[in-house]
Each structure stands twice: as C-alpha cells, then as structure tokens.
Design brief:
The chain is mostly helical and about 220 residues long. About 60% of the residues lie in helices and about 5% in strands. The longest helix is centred in the N-terminal third of the chain and has 36 residues, at about 55-90.
Length: about 220
Amino acid sequence: MTKAELVKIVCEKTGFTVQESAESVEQVFEIMKEAIEKGEKIKMQNQVQNPPTAAYVLSLLGGIIGLIVSLILVALGVLAFTAMNAFSEYSVYYDYSAVNIFWVLYIGLGLWCLISSVMILKYAGNLKANPLEHSKYGVRILIFSIIGVGGLLGLIGGILAMTYKPIMVGAQPQYGQPQYGAPPVYGQPYAGPQPTTRACPQCGRVVQDNLKFCPNCGKQLN
C-alpha cells in the first residue's frame, strides 16, 4: 500500500483534509522508521563473536532441574495432605494439627522453588538475547540459584555470566583471545636479512657494500 492510498483512507475515515491526512501519514512513517532503526541498532549492539554459551546452558540446566524438584515437592505435599485426610476419617481421637506442618512445608517450599527456577530460566534467556548485560543477569541467576534449587549448575552458570568478557563483532581480539581472520601461511622460504648497497662513484651502478671492485667498470671501492 502506497502513501497516496493511505492518505485517501485517512481522509475518508477521519474527515481530515488531504494536507492534514498527508502530514499524519508522514508522521506515522517517521515513527515506524525510527522504531525499525532503533531495533536494528539494538540488534547490532548485541552481536558478539563469543556468545556466552556455557553460562547460558548451565543456567538453563540448573533452572530445569530446579523446576523438576519443585514439582516433586508440590506433589509430595499434595499426597501428604490427601493421606492425612484419609487417616483422619478412621482415627477421630488423634490430633493431626501437628502433622499439618509437613504438607504445608512441602507445598510452600515447592512453590518457592518453582518461582526461583522460573526466574533462573527467564534470566538465562535474557543473557542469551542480550549478552552485553551479562553482569546484571549473572548476579540474578546466582541469587536465585542460592535461594532456590538451581544447584551447582546454576551457581556456575551465574559466575560464568558475571566473568564473561564479550567481543563485539568486527572488534580486534585482545592478547590471549582467539584470533579471527586468515590463517598464517607456512612453507615460504626465509629471505634472510637484505644486504646493504651503495653506488659506484665512477659508473653509478648500485653494488653490494662488501665488494672491493665494481663488477661493471672495475673501479676500486673503498
């Protein structure tokens, strides 16, 4: 759809004049252009030569393990609650109030671990999408791994994310980092040091500095 067609539609729908409609359409196009340019700029800024793959994978595994453990805890709490209600029907003289704490703890701990694991997975995805914010996401992964059940994998993933050093696309790698580009060429003979030369004072021919006589005119060289 062209701008002229959009201007015509705006005129029909809003009752604006052609000039007002054209200005409105032009403003919309400018806003869309700025949004596209901003999105491309952010995309280019997040492109790195060395994505934090290890930190992302370990954090992801830690979040998945925590998610499984949290679901198991919730299931155990539900089973404990169901079993307690079943036994209470046959033993009306026993006080089960002290036993309630167990299924409450199971379910409460499971829900807390579930929230922590979901946050670890969320920040692991953010780390992959925006590696330049690695310090912020690494700290959050580390915190939720400690207070949740992210375990050792989540802890290592958070530490790796915090210590990760991104290399921007097109940037020259520093000392100790892998070199990108054409490999060195091997097998070429070594030319050795080039001999010094000088001009013959009689014929002007360029000769090596270690010669005593000019090979062209026979002039003795000092």
